[in-house]
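Alpha-beta hydrolase superfamily lysophospholipase
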Amino acid sequence: MRALVALAALMAASVAIPARASAAAGATCRDVHIPVSFTPGGAKNQRIYGELCTPAGSRPRVIQVLVHGTTYDHNYWDLPGFGGRYSYVKHTVARGYAALAIDRIGVGRSSHPLSALTTVDTDADTLHQVVQAVRSSAFPGGAYPHVVLVGHSFGTLLSELELSEHHDADGIIATGWLAGLTKPVPTAGLVARSYSALLDPAFAGRRFDPGYLTTRPGTRAFFYQAGTYDPAVLAEDERLKQTYTAGELATFVRPLVLDRPIERITGPVLLVLGEHDVFFCGLTGVDCSTSERVMRSQAPHWKVASSLQVYVQKGAGHDIGLSYNNTAGFAAEDTWLTAEFPLG
């Protein structure tokens, strides 16, 4: 254990902290760049970018590490503009919690290794190194005693993999993801809406290989439920869209079938998803009409979790944080955090 702490401290000691203006009102925010190794035991020559926000004038003991889904980056948790209405960061920091919204490896302002080598395993391992960093005394402001992973969609799968393997976070909020395989038709639909990011004008001049993929222009309404989102949000979503890799696409099913990570997670768990999540709910999927019905379908999978709660965000599609009624999901997360990780 002492060796692990020392390693984490050494890794976090080189975190760069450029000053910048706060993105979330009432918060102190800064950019952090966390050195990580792309291979176990290898040189820490890659970087994970994060937006670290804390309540102005205070230093909480609990930090949430926010892990976005496919074709998103940290902006999913802190969408610019709209008076902060679509910022989970602003919401949770106002309630006294710290938040670190990262760009996963291969995304946004983080390093972009070869796409074929950027898989669920490298994603989960670099996320583990981020958790080590925030637990280190060398992290900006010092170590955080309590770490909660908050994932969305593919980011939830990666958070589950990290937590099941290392048990170094204290709990998880799992949004936009349920146990078992995703519905095959919508998953194939996402792939059909994708192409090499090098063909997309949004990524002109970017230096990564053709195995970095993104959604084709005009297709991102796929992540939403009709009538439950602001068209201006969809336009901003299109402007900010990001990449995923052929390596991730080729490997994401394996942990679901072989590893079954959630069966090894021991801490408290909150599941949050939209009633009309295209990947999991409805025909050929789970009945998501009520939280109780989702609980019945999911409880058998969480074999050793200390507690399991479910919240269904009524009417919403996959992108619950960007829907009109996102504050309903935020409130459910508030209630769970207050009960499981009180700030006092």
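thats it. Confidence is low (pLDDT under 50) at residues 1-23. The first helix runs from residue 2 to 12. bye
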